[in-house]
Amino acid sequence: MNLREVAVEATGISAANKTMAIGAGVGATGWWAEVNWLGLAGVLVAVIGLFANLYFQHRRDKREKEMHQAQLAALKDKCEL
Q: pTM of this prediction?
């Protein structure tokens, strides 16, 4: 994995978190103002942000697991010498 892919994932996670926050804020505002379509739109945006966040977090976990396995293999090779 190169630096560009890591940067894309970091940007995606940040954007997903902000999307969830904005969606939740719009949903709460719509609920408070009793504007049904605004509340529904906010919830929809928050759910989209949640799924994007889950996707990018899964990719990050996968990358970190691969890095951990590589570090363990390097330590194991070092100990066998």
A: 0.66
